[in-house]
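Hey all, quick one. A colleague (J.T.) asked me to put the S-adenosylmethionine job into the tracker so the inputs and the structure tokens live in one place instead of scattered across chat threads. No bug as far as I know, just bookkeeping. Sequence used:
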Amino acid sequence: MTLDLTISRLGLQGDGIADTADGPVYVPFTLPGEEVRAEPRKAGRAVPIEVVKASPSRAEPPCPHFGSCGGCELQHADPVLYGEFKRSIVVEALRRQGIETEVSPLVPCAPETRRRLAITAFRAGTKLLLGFFEAHSDRIVPIGPCPVAEPAIVAALPALEKLSAILLDRKKPLKLLVTRTETGLDVFASDAGKLPDDKRQQAIAHALKSDFARLTVDGEIFAMRRPPIVTFGGLRVTLPPGGFLQAVESAEEAMAELVTTHLTKAKRVADLFSGSGTFALRLAKKAKVHAVEAEAPALAALDKAWREAEGLKPVTTERRDLFRRPIITKDLKPYDGLVFDPPRAGAEGVAAELAKSNVKRVAAVSCNPQTLARDLKLLLDGGYRLVSVTPIDQFLWSHHVEAVALLEKGG
Ligand SMILES: C[S@@+](CC[C@H](N)C(=O)[O-])C[C@H]1O[C@@H](n2cnc3c(N)ncnc32)[C@H](O)[C@@H]1O
């Protein structure tokens, strides 16, 4: 059986949606205004078989794996529609919270700029597959010349495949988090299982031969030719194994530019969910900074970077679970600037305390527009004013969008 559908809009995950008498039907890889023939699947989903009438905004996908590989959802949309779609995710999330405000155009992300990739390896029969998970399934689609990743990562795929052949447990897929740093590739492997000594030695020899900056396996550093260095505003940081890093350098710079410009006059700044100091180190060029974060290795990396840098204002660090113990309003008194950049769950507890504070300038950085909007509502109800909201593209051709909201309180 097939369905003839007219797509009316894009859903939050980037699928086309046909509004039918039986409810919405989600059809991936289709665009508003298109007429498509599709095969129905479970739960209001359908797979497109033919685009009968294409949208003028349809573009030729640059990657041959597009449609099967789970990494990209929107290569078939031209840049104008794509940019407006991502911006609209932020607009709609705010609107659902009753926040009507100007939202800037999307800050774009160029192809071949992703410096960090999460890759999965497993064996199918005698073959080793290295790839991404297929959309909506547990099948792995082999990666080839991925147009999203930096060329240095693509060039290393054969070496990563060899490494996987050494480390792969027969039962479990192997996970590789691969980061291009200033000093080479940082490879963080997990789920290798218990390795016999000869495999260990082979993995170490292979990492050295491949000139990886570092190889970490299930939390243990196997080999380090050079510390993997990233720079935040020109300040050198040794990335902790598996530690958080913004996936695209230019997206990080766009976020940091908005945050540091907004907080430029602040004398004392709190950086909540600081990671290894993406914002804290840049801000310390002008202000005293207190960085708060749950992961001790991230704070240690930040502290070391600050000690090794010259001319920075004091930076203090605090290890703290900000979900369980948000900083309370009273403790926010010393600060005239604050940035928070939580994981996808957002920072509801932090926002509730911050809302009651008098911190003059606040920057909210987020990878989830829904939780950002919820947290902003708390701040607006507490007397903050929105200065700007800027969506930033970091995960090119996916439905994910980052945003930076800048707020003020007082005169
Ligand atoms: C989106 S990352 C941002 C990190 C940093 N601002 C950056 O741009 O690189 C979120 C950070 O929140 C930290 N985190 C996650 N849960 C946390 C919690 N409950 N309390 C404090 N920090 C947490 C993570 O370790 C991570 O460093």
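Adding what we noticed when we looked at it: The two ends are 64 Å apart (CA to CA). The mean pLDDT is 95.
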